[in-house]
Automatic annotation (TrEMBL):
Family as reported in the entry's similarity comment: Belongs to the class-I pyridoxal-phosphate-dependent aminotransferase family.
One Pfam family linked to the record: Aminotran_1_2
Protein name as it appears in the record: Aminotransferase
Keyword Transferase carried by entry: yes
Domain Aminotransferase class I/classII large: 50-430
Provenance organism: Algoriphagus namhaensis
Cofactor field: pyridoxal 5'-phosphate
Keyword annotations: Aminotransferase, Pyridoxal phosphate, Transferase
Gene3D superfamilies: Aspartate Aminotransferase, domain 1, Type I PLP-dependent aspartate aminotransferase-like (Major domain)
Amino acid sequence: MTEHLFLSEKGKKASSTLARVDLDVYFEALENRYHPVDNPSGALPMSVAENQLCWDNLKQKFQQITRKQDIPDWVASYGDAAGVASFREAIASFFSEFLFGCPVNPESLACFGGATGVIEMTAFLLANPGDTAVIPAPSYPVYTGDLGVIPGVKRYDLHTHHELEEIQNEISISLEKLEKTKNEIEAQGSRFKLLILTSPDNPTGMIYSEAQLRSIADWCIAEEIHLIVNEIYGLSRFNLDHPQLRESYPDPIPFYSFGKLMHEYQSPLLHHWYSFSKDFGISGFRIGVIHSHNSGLIQGSRNAGLSHSISNYTQWVVQEMLSDHDFLEEFFQKHTHRLTEAFLTVKKAMDEVGTPIQPAYGSLFAWVDFSAFLKEESHEGETDLWLEIFEKTGVLLTPTDGFGHSKKGLFRLVITSLSPNELKLAMERLQEFFKNKK
Ligand SMILES: Cc1ncc(COP(=O)(O)O)c(C=O)c1O
């Protein structure tokens, strides 16, 4: 193949491995994007985890900052590769007040280009090539590349459920399961080096209870395994007190931030990831954060992460935004309201057509079971259904590739990439499609 000429072995692999399998279809959907007047039968993409719910507020805030304030001179120079001190201080206060509920030392933070940069850097510094990262499955498909391409770390899918009913109130990861997984990995000649939990989870929207986090952290520390909790959706939680949601959660578990447990334990084996891509919906700003009490990890990322640094201009506008506590309070109130409404729109539509949907705690997703509509229970069957839905309705869902789910036919719907009216229309189109299929 000519495109492989002159490339390294890693280069050849990278040039023939797509970051996402659905990019062509996604760009096709964007070119034919729905518009109420100009393109009423156009496409409605619900495949990429973007959050457009509160960009109107944030845009206004950034415009105010850049119009009213002088740009400080330091933004034009090099800075700390892991984030300038004032930026890390602003993030430490934000974490402390809005996510963790405990003090955060800015020196325990390192900031890089999105969660993607942070995941890659953490895996690179904590694990050796050939080591294994265990991730409860199903999970974020791109972890595979973030862990694998540069750090050379393998992903192990630890199955937590087959049917949705199996995770009605919590994702079950018993210590016996972890022990068994460790033995299996070691028998294959690798090492169980990292355990990665995502809370709220992508794609299930589930969270881990304080008791679960404690027992898993104790086990990891005893086994000298690094436990990392990715709270990239930490402030994208649904209002479970909403009268139309309450009865689906008879015994809800409260959200407990891993940052709080880390503060108590001060262990060099516990780490936390965050990003501004989801809760704030600014994926294009590329801001991710590692929080760890392992000073070697923070210093190592500062030394080795130069290529992942965030532009100083971005750090400046974001630190100014974060310094306005009242703005943040209002922003997250609106975000919770709009996010809960979006989840309800999808839940009502799915309930009406009798499609099982996970009673999630948060995230930007609905995790739904379309298995009844598969022609065959296979990956091909899933891909056929995914494409058929897109061709007949214009609604583009996330393809099932790479989530590592054992049952065929479960799909992730991104509930925050469309306006409320567009989301309603997408649900009407899906309902029509499924009614015709029955
Ligand atoms: C669990 C998880 N981690 C990381 C990322 C990547 O985030 P970023 O855009 O900040 O690199 C995503 C994006 O969908 C995600 O869902």
